[in-house]
Task: inverse folding
């Protein structure tokens, strides 16, 4: 068998894998490397994430390109998340060979319609229906400046997504998103390929915990909105302790959480602390008002935590409904919460989770599927 090479264009440096998008990229890279794929990784970098030698062990080469921030990218007909990720050096590197190219998210698609790549295999890795994502951010963010940016970005992204007609293949993180892409791009093969992740086996402590947990990056408007909903509508059950754990909560949110005597806010927990909170919680309450993409915090919780209480939007297109309790109103969520605190989490439930997650979310299985789709085995 001849060597199989693959270019991967990443919107960010995918190490450390500490937030949704880069988790998928990093564990995709490690999985494909184990399966014998020779990876040529191209990363856009900007302040806050440093270059790392960790990626070198999985890749034939790792190239870095500066993200073009500020006015030069803002005043473009292309969306800012796309126009800020262009590089003459990148396209020069891509045309040196004829290997397939994986574009990670719409962010990285600046060159997907470039005539120099016309005859190449180009794979679009969908992580969100971006214009919907930004429109929902517009709806939930209270800051006027942010709202204007999110509305403008949503409009640009809706138009720009037509560039995806130049893709050879599309891989969507949820069946819901795959259905959307099939409808809008009927001439292109679209497959559901769940996000790659850090977990190999279910590892859950059976029995009872004594608190409910919500976790997420609270500086993201979507998560702050969800956490605010929980604090004001759900976490007023005085006999249940609640913990909210997440990155960079804003002062306004901190003050609101402090008004609830049964709510504890854990800001910026270290990785070890976060893992401890997930393992020891009795109920994980995870709600979202964005029904796009795959919520990796849900997947991580199902591998490592006890009961998961979610709304329908969190599950859209995931096939994980049977592993969760579902509530879509404050009354339903509170009733389910009270019921779950009367139950023990059993070993039998752990085994059931392992079987279902192995079937649909196993990295090795999905890596082999991805290879077969790209290289037509």
Result:
């Amino acid at each position: 068998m001849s060597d199989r090479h693959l270019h991967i264009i990443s919107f960010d440096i995918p190490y450390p894998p500490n937030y949704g998008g880069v988790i998928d990229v990093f564990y995709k890279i490690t999985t494909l490397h184990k399966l014998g794929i020779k990876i040529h990784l191209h990363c856009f970098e900007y302040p806050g994430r440093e270059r790392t030698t960790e990626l070198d062990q999985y890749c034939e080469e790792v190239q870095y390109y500066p993200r073009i921030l500020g006015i030069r990218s803002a005043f473009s007909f292309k969306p800012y998340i796309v126009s800020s990720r262009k590089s003459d050096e990148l396209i020069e590197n891509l045309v040196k060979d004829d290997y397939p190219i994986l574009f990670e998210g719409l962010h990285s698609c600046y060159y997907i319609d470039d005539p120099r790549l016309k005859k190449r295999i180009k794979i679009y890795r969908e992580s969100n229906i971006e214009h919907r994502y930004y429109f929902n951010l517009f709806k939930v963010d209270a800051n006027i400046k942010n709202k204007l940016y999110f509305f403008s970005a949503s409009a640009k992204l809706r138009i720009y997504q037509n560039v995806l007609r130049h893709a050879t293949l599309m891989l969507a993180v949820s069946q819901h998103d795959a259905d959307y892409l099939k409808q809008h791009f009927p001439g292109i093969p679209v497959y559901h390929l769940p996000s790659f992740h850090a977990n190999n086996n279910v590892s859950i402590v059976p029995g009872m915990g004594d608190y409910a947990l919500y976790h997420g990056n609270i500086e993201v408007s979507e998560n702050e909105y969800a956490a605010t909903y929980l604090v004001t509508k759900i976490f007023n059950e005085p006999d249940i302790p609640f913990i909210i754990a997440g990155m960079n909560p804003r002062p306004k949110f901190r003050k609101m959480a402090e008004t609830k005597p049964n709510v504890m806010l854990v800001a910026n927990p270290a990785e070890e602390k976060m893992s401890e909170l997930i393992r020891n919680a009795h109920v994980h309450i995870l709600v979202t008002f964005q029904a796009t993409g795959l919520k990796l915090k849900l997947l991580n919780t199902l591998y490592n935590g006890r009961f998961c209480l979610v709304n329908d939007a969190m599950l859209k297109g995931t096939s994980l409904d049977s592993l969760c309790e579902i509530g879509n109103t404050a009354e339903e969520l509170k009733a389910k919460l009270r019921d779950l605190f009367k139950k023990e989490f059993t070993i039998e439930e752990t085994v059931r989770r392992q079987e279902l997650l192995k079937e649909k979310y196993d990295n090795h299985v999905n890596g082999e599927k991805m290879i077969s789709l790209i290289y037509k085995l």
